[in-house]
Amino acid sequence: MIRGLDRWLASYWKTRHQRRDRQHGEPTDLLLCICDHFEPKRGNASPARARARVQEWLDKYPVLFDQFRDSDGLPPQHTFFYPEDEYEPELVDMVASLCHKGYGEVEIHLHHDNDTAAGLRQKLLDFKRTLHDQHGLLGTDRETGEVVYGFIHGNWALCNSRKDGRWCGVDNELDILRETGCYADFTMPSAPNETQTSTINQLYWASSTGRPKAHDRGVQLGKGPQPSDSLLMIQGPLLLDWKARKFGCLPGIENGNLQHSQPPGPERLKLWMRANIKPFSNSSSVFVKLHTHGVHEPNQEVLLGPQLVQLHEALRRLSDADTSFRFHYVTAREMANSAIAAKTEFNFLDTSRKYRYDSPRVRCPASLRN
Fold it and tell me: Can you say whether the dihedral through the CA atoms of 147, 42, 290, 165 is positive or negative?
């Protein structure tokens, strides 16, 4: 048995009809979002090394990717989920400078262990105010003006989902996130990690149950009204990859991870699209949320090198060869806005509808503005 497959194989079988390959001429809007567990101090890096890692992003990202434009005229977007537990004002300012030039946005990442609900709440409230007030980051709710954020849990242990209780400690974490302004969680998938949910390849609402791993199941977007006190869960693709067999017979796992051992490429793009993650069943949109640990030297070779360039070239070729195929580089916030807009109005490309980004330097095409 492939490690951890028992946690999601039943769901994979039940949702087999969801998965399908796109046909030439089929109207398609691909929303691509790269969510980065952006950890400059990874591996107990020295201050100088952490700064050099971030500087490499500032130096290389515009040079490599400004040549590309999506169907709305925007360059590739990168969402930097910055860890609260690694906060350094200088490093955040460096990342913010790249975002303010129009290449992405910053959201919240958190590693914690043996925490309490009160401790978690304070960490999130303090960090979101710091990012917003001192660095001009994070979005605001268009209706209330509240500072809001997207979230990825460190060590994948969202809602105390490890069996040993490590790297979290808060069973009602979904409530704390929602109450402190989290608009969506982007942690999943985590396979083959034990924290992987049985729900896969979905956009859904999850509510606290008073027990660990409350996000294991929820109400799928488009299949019913949003439950009260629920949080939007945006998952990336999780599939069996029969072209990457192990031992000649067992399939590999496609989990949307971009790293040195899993570089992007046209074949993986087909799999990501085949997961067919949509806000409602007859939508022309396909949500592809990928994840990475970008501030790690072996991975930086992929994220800031020719392999990711080739992915953008593949998207451009698809669009040039088939006018029915459109692709959109979106941030985590824009992907959540698209999902929420689809839920309420079936207008999935209104990426600025609910959660607004304050910086006037972040470009937004006229077709996506309110």
Answer: negative
Let me know: does 168 contact 211? Beta carbons within 8 Å: no
Q: CB count, 10 Å around CB of 370?
A: 8
Tokens of 170: 């808060």
Cβ pair 110, 125 in contact under 8 A: no
DSSP 150-188: EEEEGGG-GGG-STT-TT---TTHHHHHHHTTEEEE---
Specify whether the CB–CB gap between 112 and 156 falls below 8 A.
no
Evaluate whether 92 touches 41 at the Cβ level (below 8 Å).
no
Whole-model pTM?
Answer: 0.93
Distance of CA 136 to the CA centre of its chain: 21
**CA–CA distance, 318 with 244 (Å, rounded to integer):** 23
Please compute, for residue 2, the number of CA atoms within 13 A of its CA located in the half-sphere on the CB side: 21
- Residue 17: CB atoms within 10 A of its CB come to 7
Q: How many angstroms separate the CA atoms of 294 and 42, rounded? A: 10
Residue stretches of the chain with pLDDT short of 50? 345-348, 359-370
pLDDT tens digits along 40-91: 999 999 999 999 999 999 999 999 999 999 999 999 999 999 999 999 999 9
Determine contact, residues 286/332, Cβ cutoff 8 Å: no
Distance CA 153, CA 155 (A): 6
CA distance between the termini of the chain: 50
Contact 305, 260 (CB under 8 A): no
For 196-224, write each residue's pLDDT tens digit: 999 999 999 999 999 999 999 999 998 88
